UniProtKB/TrEMBL annotation:
Signal sequence residues: 1-23
Record CDD domains: Hint
Keywords: Signal
Alphabetized Gene3D superfamilies for the sequence: Hedgehog/Intein (Hint) domain
Name the record gives this protein: Hint domain-containing protein
InterPro entries reported for this sequence: Hint_dom_N, Hint_dom_sf, Intein_N
UniProt keyword Lipid metabolism, yes or no: no
Hint domain location: 402-516
Bilayer-crossing regions: none
Organism: Hymenobacter saemangeumensis
Length: 557
């Protein structure tokens, strides 16, 4: 029914922004052809492939161009209507509509309705009548069938074939019969499932039942100058197909399968990483301990490798299914749109009004293609990860001994004071880190290892805390290290993530617990350089498996 709220809604966009923002025009392009141009994802790992094909970017650019052309396209009518809407919006702003009461806004909207694009004089007049309480009461007293007929009579242009049709008793009887049938839920449900041809055939039989045959309908239509014959709109089928593909019930099973496969893969990766983090690495005392750590890490990498391989195989088949389902879903609409687009059949005003809706259908097609591209391209990222893991797995086990510090390296004792590592004795109490509580604890030195077999290469590592690294000043002084430590390249530093990382492999993004005045803080590698050699180096073995050197947490390898 045409209500006052419906009238106000027609002016809603103009009142808010002063312009019509929903106009767009379909492009003359068969977008369905692009489905066959989307490269298929990798079905299995292939380390000979270093990156995704350039065709992905080319296709992505083509889709973006088409989408922009649709959004910016306008028919002559749309251009004219937009100008009219802007003029009405500017007038409303000048008249201070925003400061009016709701009742004043409604009255103002009724006055402006006749100036709105696509609003007929009959519609504007009916909207004025709808404000009259007596008219509203009269309408409320009517049955549904009476209301439908009355409103049709009000909205039909004077002297038109539509006015003659709604005034014909046979048509009125057929319409009342149909409306009565639609009150039956079973009939209404069956009607909505019928195709356009089936609905047309049923209405033709119903009209004939009430005496409105083809000859009489032609006589009613007449041959008035300027009157369009009563023929179906060429846009009807395309709009119906668009309605079907956007139906919430019309879901694609492959979409759910894709989301499930992705979630399962991410969960597998997370589980593997958690298993590594919850088990403390053994101290690097012997080659046997190092081999044990290597095998644990190796096993985790093998699990990651298998998960990535399964993911590629699974998602490849899902992708093929998703493409087939999207093509089946979108083809009927696009085929019908192409038929009327390429034939320039969209001519009548009612058909022109469907342009934005048809353009929206093309945008939906583009979104489906973009999703297909993203799903396929993602396989190359997983393949890259797979090959990186495979390279890591290929590295053989190498036992590294004698990872130590020079004599002057300062170890933090249990009371917080510091002492050179060369003077530490077995049985001494030093500070350590308890990964379970995240706090500093005390541990006993079980042994002091001294190595003097040859010259040992040293690295100088400069660490900075966030307070030193961060600054909001426009100009800051040169970076000053929070602390500095000398160590052999293979000595393990323990990170906040419970990883043991060699001194020569530690990155600037890995936080190492640091004993500052306020407690533990994360410290980050700021600089690494060669520091010559040492003829004697030292290492402590502790009951906790770790200790602090120059305030930094290290393993007791």
């Amino acid at each position: 029914m045409f209500t006052l709220s419906r009238v106000v809604a027609l002016l809603g966009l103009s009142m808010l922004s002063g312009t019509a923002a929903l106009a767009q025009k379909p492009v003359k392009q068969d977008l369905m052809l692009l489905f066959d141009k989307v490269p298929a994802p990798l079905a299995a790992p292939d380390c000979a492939v270093k990156q995704a094909p350039a065709s992905y970017n080319a296709l992505r650019a083509q889709l973006a161009t088409a989408s922009q052309a649709i959004a910016q396209g306008r028919t002559a009518t749309q251009t004219k209507d937009e100008a009219t809407m802007r003029a009405v919006g500017n007038r409303m702003q000048a008249d201070g509509v925003g400061n009016m009461s709701q009742a004043q806004q409604q009255a103002y909207a009724m006055q402006q309705l006749g100036n709105m694009p696509g609003v007929s004089p009959e519609t504007a007049q009916l909207a004025q009548l709808m404000q009259d309480p007596a008219f509203q009461a009269r309408l409320a007293s009517m049955s549904d069938e009476q209301k439908a007929l009355f409103l049709q009579q009000q909205l039909a242009p004077k002297g038109s074939s539509t006015q003659r049709m709604v005034g014909d008793p046979a048509f009125q009887a057929a319409q009342a019969d149909f409306m009565q049938q639609m009150k039956n839920p079973s009939f209404a449900a069956a009607w909505n499932k019928k195709s356009t041809d089936e609905q047309d055939a049923y209405m033709k039989q119903l009209m004939q039942k009430h005496g409105l045959n083809e000859a009489k309908m032609k006589a009613i239509a007449g041959s008035n100058a300027g009157q369009q014959p009563l023929a179906p709109l060429v846009t009807t089928r395309a709009q119906e197909e668009l309605s079907r593909l956007t139906d919430p019930a019309n879901k694609l099973s492959a979409e759910a399968e894709w989301s499930q496969a992705k979630a399962q893969y991410l969960k597998e990766v997370e589980t593997i990483q958690k298993q590594l983090n919850t088990k403390v690495y053994k101290a690097f005392t012997t080659c046997a301990d190092q081999k044990d750590n290597y095998e644990r890490h190796h096993k985790a990498l093998e699990q990651r490798l298998a998960a990535a391989g399964r993911y590629l195989a699974t998602t490849s088949s899902i992708w093929a299914k998703y493409r087939a389902q999207q093509k089946a879903r979108l083809t009927p609409f696009n085929a019908e749109l192409n038929r009327i687009q390429y034939g320039d059949a969209i001519k009548r005003p009612q058909e022109q009004q469907a342009m934005p809706t048809l353009a929206a259908g093309q945008q939906i097609t583009i979104l489906a293609l973009q999703a297909l591209v993203e799903y396929s391209e993602a396989s190359y990222e997983v393949n890259k990860e797979y090959c990186s893991i495979k390279t890591e797995l290929a590295k053989p086990f190498v036992c590294e001994e004698n990872s130590c510090f020079p004599a002057q390296a300062l170890v933090t004792l249990a009371d917080g004071s510091k002492q050179a590592i060369a003077s530490i004795k077995a049985g001494s109490l030093v500070q350590s880190y308890d990964a379970r509580t995240g706090r500093i604890s005390t541990t006993r030195v079980s042994a002091v290892q001294v190595h003097a077999d040859h010259d040992y290469p040293l690295l100088r590592l400069r660490f900075a805390t966030p307070a030193v690294l961060a600054s909001t000043e426009d100009t800051v002084a040169p970076l000053l290290p929070a602390t500095e430590v000398l160590a052999t390249p293979n000595h393990p530093f323990l990170t906040a993530d419970n990883d043991a990382v060699r001194a020569d492999a530690l990155s600037s993004t890995q936080a190492v617990p640091f004993t500052a005045a306020a407690g533990l803080e994360p410290a980050y590698l700021a600089e690494r350089s060669s520091a010559g050699t040492a003829t004697v180096v030292y290492n402590l073995k502790t009951e906790a498996g770790n200790y602090f050197v120059e305030g930094l947490l290290v393993g007791d390898k």
